Amino acid sequence: MKVVLFCGGYGMRMRSGDADSPPKPMQMVGPRPLIWHVMRYYAHYGHTEFVLCLGYGAHHIKNFFLTYQETMSNDFVIRDGQVELLDSDIADWTITFVDTGLESAIGERLRRVRPYLGDDQVFLANYSDVLTDAPLNRMIDQFTASGAAASMMIVPPQSSFHCVDVLPGGEVKQITPVGKLPIWENGGYFVLTQEIFDYLPEGGDLVEDVCGALAATGRLYGYQHDGFWKPADTFKERAELDAGYHRGDRPWMVWEGAAS
Q1: pTM flag (> 0.85)
Q2: CA–CA distances in Å: residue 181 to residues 10, 164, 174, 177, 220
């Protein structure tokens, strides 16, 4: 299946004062940027055709792949002055780079890359800034069995805040950690059919317009995942992922377990 990656937003919560800051998917986790980790996850499950929805900071992403160094994350031998790779990351990947506009909403970015989906009736999509160990094959199989038009992975709330149940007079009745509430939030991993374009207006949004309309008619499936899931929406979250990588705590790198 083709994988559509939304990687053209400004990422305001991750940007420094530099007017040409790298986009959020290019923030580093270990020796590779976030977008590489997301793509490597999909490639592990056999999905190696990627369509990148570019916008802000597109040249950073293009340059990364145009000057890609396999030796950064693969073992190699130097023999007679020549580098011989013992393994490869992206040699079998097909990556389509599409300018989808600086100000486009995610739904509009998706509309603009529709021609690159070809005849694929089912495809995958992702925000490019969230890492997980979710079993992708199971996610796809459950979606297929559901007969829905679209599926989103949903996860327990990640907030460390507390919800307060208060009476009209101000008396606090109960305090509950957000993570303990019986609710789920969008996890950013989608399995979609081309039917979704019937619900996607020009300039529209994937979640509010498409998923909202499909949910109202029972055509949206939620894959519940309570394993590892972590966004990199802020500097702190990205730093936590990077620290985990360096101490060997990296459950999202499911390809490492397979290799061992």
Answers
A1: yes
A2: 31, 11, 12, 7, 22
